[in-house]
Automatic annotation (TrEMBL):
<comment type="subunit">
    <text>Homodimer.</text>
</comment>
<dbReference type="GO" id="GO:0046394">
    <property type="term" value="P:carboxylic acid biosynthetic process"/>
</dbReference>
<keyword id="KW-0436">Ligase</keyword>
<protein>
    <recommendedName>
        <fullName>formate--tetrahydrofolate ligase</fullName>
        <ecNumber>6.3.4.3</ecNumber>
    </recommendedName>
</protein>
<dbReference type="InterPro" id="IPR000559">
    <property type="entry name" value="Formate_THF_ligase"/>
</dbReference>
<dbReference type="Pfam" id="PF01268">
    <property type="entry name" value="FTHFS"/>
</dbReference>
<dbReference type="GO" id="GO:0005524">
    <property type="term" value="F:ATP binding"/>
</dbReference>
<dbReference type="InterPro" id="IPR027417">
    <property type="entry name" value="P-loop_NTPase"/>
</dbReference>
<dbReference type="GO" id="GO:0004329">
    <property type="term" value="F:formate-tetrahydrofolate ligase activity"/>
</dbReference>
<dbReference type="GO" id="GO:0005737">
    <property type="term" value="C:cytoplasm"/>
</dbReference>
<comment type="pathway">
    <text>One-carbon metabolism; tetrahydrofolate interconversion.</text>
</comment>
<keyword id="KW-0067">ATP-binding</keyword>
<comment type="similarity">
    <text>In the N-terminal section; belongs to the tetrahydrofolate dehydrogenase/cyclohydrolase family.</text>
</comment>
<keyword id="KW-0547">Nucleotide-binding</keyword>
<comment type="similarity">
    <text>In the C-terminal section; belongs to the formate--tetrahydrofolate ligase family.</text>
</comment>
<keyword id="KW-0554">One-carbon metabolism</keyword>
<dbReference type="InterPro" id="IPR020628">
    <property type="entry name" value="Formate_THF_ligase_CS"/>
</dbReference>
Length: 538
């Protein structure tokens, strides 16, 4: 219950597919069903995150190992180890040949290189202070936000400060979600920038020589997983970059595969994370650019409870009973909170796409509250606003929504991007901040400005923007609900995900490694050793 809305996009005759979250509400089946959905789906079903973690951390290990070996060996020793003689034959591997070509060395016999060419080949000269690649783990562990590596005696004093990110923030996750095939994925993995040399040159995964191994680790993860809802609707489950710290959308491959399967007259629904300010904005500006796909309609999913929070309702704490304001009728809170709904509709209209509001109805919602939300939504520009009862009735509770989406999707829209890629990095960030978030302006930290200058120098200025921002507010301040105004958006840092293909500003205090609260949900999770039934996940 952060921003009041999550989004899905509907495409007719040419776009997308992914997860439907109402899937679990009817999950009162056998212990086997609970086991399958709870563990297989939520934790280990696709294996995507495991593959991404292994690939990401292989890059991290390669970086630190290369820094150590270059610092402790001569050019000759490095060359003999990087290009060893095997059974009396010495030759470059294909990825080493590619590096030679990038260096402008057009030789294939290792014995033909001059000492100067050998030095250029063996020394990446990575600056330990300018390594941008982080290790990842799929656990909320706040104590990994800043760490020191290389403290063992065997690392010969080559310690440095670094950090862990959550696994879904890995650039490799974004690549998985944006790629259109194995060849493209391998090329994107090779373009990933891991840091800079001491003379300011970008160092990539290709330079490290690790690209082929990464592709092997990811070769199965690139395949979408086909599942179905309890009512038999086919669903592709693939990729999971969070919208608050990544681009927040399911994979292009799943979208295109789904479109092919449904045919010209079929419909595909794809989900984008959190509110229209982050998941949807990145869907349009990043995913649509990459895929070439265009949506026919946006479905904004709202709840009365979330709108009440945006209207000034009390804070909600996980594991604690809901305050009475969210259980009893309160039309004033709903009316005030609909300011957020109106803003979300306006954000969608910036891209020229019509909106259907789907009000996800729960048993504590009153008819007066439901009618108020639908009325305000349509008055705010939604092409339709429909009360949906899939929480209690399953698919038959959303038939009216399906008809509304079908009708609106048949109408012509005027899709457009929010900004031109040739705009400067600063102007693209400012455009998002002002037009989407409602900020007066942006404020760049000295570190962020220095990185922008460096990225421009390296030729990365024409990439789209992927903002890392809280999902709990339109602003950078999680406690500011509704439609905050009069604020300056602070840009603390900026990263470059060159393989994925975007620039990655960090807004305010946004962290790429979440932390556990005082009472994590693991207190409620357990396993029945006899039935293997999982308890406490829902």
């Amino acid at each position: 219950m952060g921003n009041s809305l999550s989004k899905s996009k509907c495409f007719k005759k040419g776009v997308t597919a992914h997860i439907l979250y109402c899937l679990y509400q009817k999950l009162q089946k056998t212990a086997y069903s609970l086991y399958f959905f709870s563990i297989q789906f939520n934790l280990h079903l696709t294996g995507d995150i495991h593959a991404i973690t292994a690939a990401n951390n292989l890059v991290a290990a390669a970086i630190d190992a290369r820094i150590l070996h270059e610092a402790t060996q001569s050019d000759k020793a490095l060359y003999s180890r990087l290009v060893p003689s095997v059974n009396g034959v010495r030759c470059f591997s294909p990825i080493q040949m590619a590096r030679l070509q990038r260096l402008g060395i057009n030789k294939s016999d290792p014995s033909d290189l001059t000492p100067e060419e050998v030095r250029a080949f063996v020394r990446l000269d990575l600056d330990p202070e300018k390594v941008t690649w982080q290790r990842v783990v799929d656990t909320n562990d706040r104590f990994l936000r800043k760490i020191t590596v290389g403290q063992a005696n065997t690392e010969k004093g080559h310690a440095r400060q670094t950090q862990f990110d959550i696994a879904v923030a890995s650039e490799i996750m974004a690549i998985l979600a944006l790629t259109d095939g194995l060849a493209d994925m391998r090329a994107r993995l090779g373009r990933m920038v891991v840091g800079s040399s001491r003379n300011g040159q970008s160092i990539t995964a290709d330079d490290l020589g690790v690209t082929g191994a990464l592709a092997v680790l990811m070769k199965d993860a690139i395949k979408p997983t086909l599942m179905q809802t309890l009512e038999g609707t086919p669903v592709f489950v693939h990729a999971g970059p969070f919208a608050n710290i990544a681009h927040g959308n399911s994979s292009v491959l799943a979208d295109k595969l789904a479109l092919k399967l449904v045919g010209e007259e079929g419909y595909v629904v794809t989900e984008a994370g959190f509110g229209a300010d982050i998941g949807m904005e990145k869907f349009f500006n990043i995913k649509c650019r990459t895929s070439g796909l265009r949506p026919d309609v946006v479905v904004l999913v709202a709840t009365v409870r979330a709108l009440k929070m945006h209207g000034g309702g009390p804070n909600v704490t996980a594991g604690v009973p809901l305050p009475k304001e969210y259980i009893n009728e309160n039309l004033q809170l709903v009316a005030d909170g609909c300011s957020n709904l109106k803003k979300q509709i306006q954000i969608a209209h910036l891209f020229g796409v019509p909106v259907v509001v789907a009000l996800n109805v729960f048993k504590t919602d009153t008819q007066a509250e439901i009618d108020m939300v639908c009325c305000i939504a349509e008055a705010s520009g939604a092409s339709a606003a429909v009360q949906c009862h899939h929480w209690s009735r399953g698919g038959r509770g959303s038939v009216e929504l399906a008809h509304a989406v079908k009708k609106v999707a048949s109408q012509k829209n005027h899709f457009q991007f929010l900004y031109n890629l040739q705009d400067s990095i600063v102007e693209k960030i400012r455009t998002i901040a002002q037009k989407v978030y409602g900020a007066d302006d942006i404020e760049l930290s000295p570190e962020a400005q220095a990185k922008i200058d460096h990225y421009n120098q390296q030729g990365f200025g024409a990439l789209p923007i992927c903002m890392a921002k809280t999902h709990l507010s339109l602003s950078h301040m999680p406690e500011k609900k509704g439609v905050p105004t009069g604020f300056i958006l602070p840009i603390r840092d900026i990263r470059a995900s060159i393989g994925a293909g975007f620039i990655y500003p960090l807004v305010g205090t946004m962290s790429t490694m979440p932390g556990l609260p005082t009472r994590p949900c693991f207190y409620d999770i357990d396993l029945d050793p006899v039935t293997e039934e999982i308890k406490g996940l829902f």
